[in-house]
Amino acid sequence: ITEAVRLGLSTSGKAVTFTAIALVTATLLWAFSDIRFCSEMGLLLALWMGISFFGSFTFVPALLVLWKPKFFLRAAEEGIIG
């Protein structure tokens, strides 16, 4: 499981990181809007996307390694993963 998580983060994780940085940066630009509502919502949305990325990139893989869910192990035995 640890090797599968490491491989997943090192391959598709690069694309996810690039996409998250691009989306957070683009949304963060709304913070410089003259319209107060758009400015606040842009800042909050960028913050929320950043927190979601951080959680999905650290918390979910850690749970997979710690809990070792049956569906994940079954998929590995059938050759679907790795």
Considering the chains and any ligands shown, give keywords for the structure.
82 residues, 0% strand, mainly alpha
Task: Report on the architecture of this protein.
This protein has 82 residues and is mainly alpha-helical. The chain has three helices and no strands. The protein has helices at 2-28, 36-67, 70-77. Helix 1 packs antiparallel against helix 2. The protein starts with a helix and ends in a 5-residue tail after the last helix. The mean pLDDT is 89.
Please give the structural blueprint:
Layout lengths: L1 H27 L7 H32 L2 H8 L5
Helix pairs in contact: 1-2
Q: For the report, how would you describe the main beta sheet?
A: none
Percentage of residues assigned to helices: over 70%
Low-confidence stretches: none
Tell me the number of helical segments per DSSP (H or I, 4 or more residues long).
Answer: 3
Number of strands: 0
What's the assembly state of these chains? single chain
Characterize the overall form.
Answer: elongated
Strand content: under 5%
Using only C-alpha atoms, the radius of gyration works out to 17 Å
What series of H and E elements makes up the topology? HHH
Characterize this entry briefly.
The protein has 82 residues and is mainly α.
